[in-house]
Amino acid sequence: MDEELARDYANCSTFCVVRDPLRRFVSEYFYISRHRRTPGPLCNQRMFEEYANATLQRLMEDPWIDDCHHVPQAYYLTSFTGRRLCDHIVRYKNLQEELSKVLKFYRDVDVRETKLPAGVNSVPGRCKLENLSVSEELQQRLRDFFHLDYELGL
């Protein structure tokens, strides 16, 4: 979104880590709930849907809420003029393998033996997206909001 920054990136080798938009949204729900000490079980469809509906409403008024954690990833991958800003796109679900390939491309660095953070949705004992029965209506609303991410195949 910042053309000056985009020009600076043109002089660098860059990579971006992207995540499935729905999983990213659920991860933000767990993060916010944990830090705000939301009472009750987090792995609860009703609580998640209330959060999601309220957040989507707020996003319609101000897409930059929550430290820009809900901004479509597509905004970070391309400039306003449509120029791609990332030389390499790393998918979060394959972080270890894909980041290793990117780093090996530039240097003989292999992170496959390095334990990288697994993320909130992968921590044993935590609620996972698969445990939430997200309604089809809400999934569609999230797909509509993050349509640019889905159009890019994220």
UniProtKB/TrEMBL annotation:
Superkingdom to which the source organism belongs: Eukaryota
InterPro entries per record: P-loop_NTPase, Sulfotransferase
Record-given protein name: Carbohydrate sulfotransferase
Natural source organism: Durusdinium trenchii
